[in-house]
Amino acid sequence: MCETEDNRNSLELRGITKRIIHNNKCRSTQKMVYYQKGDELDITALAHNAASQAEHVVRKMIQAGWSVCHFRNLPAWLQDNDFLIFGHRPPLPSFRACFKSIFRIHTETANIWTHLLGCVAFIAIAVFFLMRPTIEIELQEKIVFGAFFAGAIICLGMSFMFHTVNCHSQFIGKLFSKLDYCGIAMLIMGSFVPWVYYGFYCHFRPKVVYLSVVCALGITSIMVSLWDKFSESGWRPFRAAVFMTFGLSGIVPAIHYGIVEGWFNKVSQKSLGWLILMGLLYIMGAMLYALRVPERWFPGKFDIWLHSHQIFHVFVLGGAFVHYHGISEMAMYRVTIGQCEMPDIPIY
Predict the structure, then answer these.
(1) Percent of the chain residues past pLDDT 70, beyond the cut
(2) Separation CA 264–CA 71 (nearest Å)
(3) 179 and 92 belong to one structural domain
(4) Can you give the pTM of this predicted structure?
(5) Which one in 2, 51, 167, 223 has a CA-CA gap of 20 to 30 Å to 244?
(6) 256 annotated as ligand-binding
(7) Signal peptide position in this chain (predicted)?
């Protein structure tokens, strides 16, 4: 199916299928001779059963020896990036085969492993952080960081799952693509919580307003992500625009934070610096993803390694770690200076 040798194998498998069905039908017909007229067998049911058995056998044979495909040999529902010419997985209608494929080299290999390892890393960090005694880290601090950890783990986990099983079937691919995009929205939403909490630590009303707006934007992004057309390849720039807009909405509270804390305050400069670096990583990754660079410039040269989606994954992972470092420094600053000394002030 995917190469010259695969085409021959496919023809042989089709022949095997036909022979199995034919033999089963013949055996069923022979059995009917021994039944009286009132005890006739259901020929349709027998034929359907024979076809199902044959299909099961053929699927087993295909899954045991599949090889990577050319883009043009993929079914329409698996054709996403036409600048990646070769190295695609064929449809693998078995979850076991899909998960075994993570140990094979193909266009999704790096996409799978970058976010699988990232997910495991954030699970380990979250467990270490949340299991610290309350005397070291208070419950409310754990809840705030927990929102970020949950967003990161869900995003990276759903991404890993999507890239692993998207070749299973059209239904499974579409389902997990929606979960993948919902995960991105949850990462952005979870990332806002700690820095807004610590940035407006002594200003209750702005904190509540910004967190409420973030939740509203996050829910809107999730609802858009569940739209069927949102996951189609032609809507790639729109997807990038939705998440970039959501992320860039943080400019407003960032400016407010700079006004409240002072633009030339060392702490605010450091905090905003990490925030800006995280934003740049996310934006650059999203732009490369939307433009499909570098494979757009060199079709077929980045099929397996360093294509735009892989770079996007690395930038997302890097942005998440940068953000964790930044909010950790903000939290340490708040612990160092102690309780708020100034009363709550209105929104600027």
Answers:
(1) 78
(2) 53
(3) no
(4) 0.81
(5) 167
(6) no
(7) none
